[in-house]
Amino acid sequence: MASIKANARKIVCIGRNYADHIKELNSARPKKPFFFLKPPSSILPPNSGPVLRPTGVTLHYEVELALIIRKTLRDLNENDEKTAMDAIGGYAMSIDMTARNIQDEAKKKGLPWSIAKGFDTFLPMSEYIPKDKIPDPHNLELWLSVNDEGRQRDSTNLMMFRIPRQLANISQCMTLEEGDVVLTGTPKGVGSVVRGDVMRAGLRVDGKDIEEGRIEVEVKEKGGLYEYKET
């Protein structure tokens, strides 16, 4: 797992890829995949401590399937599904932590929202999942619970833009390189967590849990000098 963080030159995140998630955030439905970036420093490997909530932040979870890229992709045609899928070396589960109040303010004011996604510990990830453990990434059940209460549970077959289309659109703008991580979007059910909450997440193939895909992480206060104040 340490190698995922060490080898990730960038983390590309697909936004608004599940229709019900778009509705719950009252967002506009995109006509094509759009994406944003998280810094590799936000990755929190398994057993590396808690998610840290910065002072004043409304902290939300978003469970997502992560792709680990093994081959360079540049200017890929969206119909070339074979090349797209062959460029994936393996998978991981992830929780895209979001400072929702920072993001909401940035959206309202037309500002970038990198800060809302980029704090240290804002991307808990599972162990690396070998590719042969997931024969069809478009037919998985993703789930997340908070304090053992189910919050998110949906199938990846609900993605509006399938993985080859995601990778093609990214690669037409920026080259995907070996070690890069791509987050494929979150289903409905996102919500807030506070200090002391314990998040658990995972995925199932044909109803069976994939052990390497499990995440368990607590939320604690970050402390330090940062405190959210309106921009």
Structural write-up:
This protein is α+β, with helices and mostly antiparallel strands. It contains six helices and 17 strands. The chain has helices at residues 2-7, 19-24, 81-86, 100-109, 114-118, 163-171; strands at residues 11-15, 34-38, 43-44, 51-53, 59-61, 63-69, 88-95, 98-99, 123-124, 129-130, 141-146, 149-155, 181-183, 191-193, 198-205, 208-209, 215-221. The strands form four sheets. A six-stranded mixed sheet has the order 2-1-13-6-7-10. Strands 4, 11, 12, 15, 16 and 17 form a six-stranded mixed sheet that branches. A hairpin with a 2-residue loop joins strand 15 (198-205) and strand 16. It is globular and about 45 Å long. The model has no long low-confidence stretch (mean pLDDT 95).
SSE layout and pairings?
Elements lengths: L1 H6 L3 E5 L3 H6 L9 E5 L4 E2 L6 E3 L5 E3 L1 E7 L11 H6 L1 E8 L2 E2 H10 L4 H5 L4 E2 L4 E2 L10 E6 L2 E7 L7 H9 L9 E3 L7 E3 L4 E8 L2 E2 L5 E7 L10
Parallel strand pairs: 1-13, 3-9, 4-17
Antiparallel strand pairs: 1-2, 5-8, 5-14, 6-7, 6-13, 7-10, 11-12, 11-15, 15-16, 15-17
Terminal CA distance reads 36 Å
- Annotation, overall tally of beta strands: 17
Unreliable spans: none
Largest sheet: 6 strands, mixed
Nearest-integer average pLDDT: 95
Order of helices and strands, N to C? Answer: HEHEEEEEHEEHHEEEEHEEEEE
Structural class: alpha+beta
> How many alpha or pi helices?
6
The coarse overall form would be globular
Strand fraction equals 25-35%
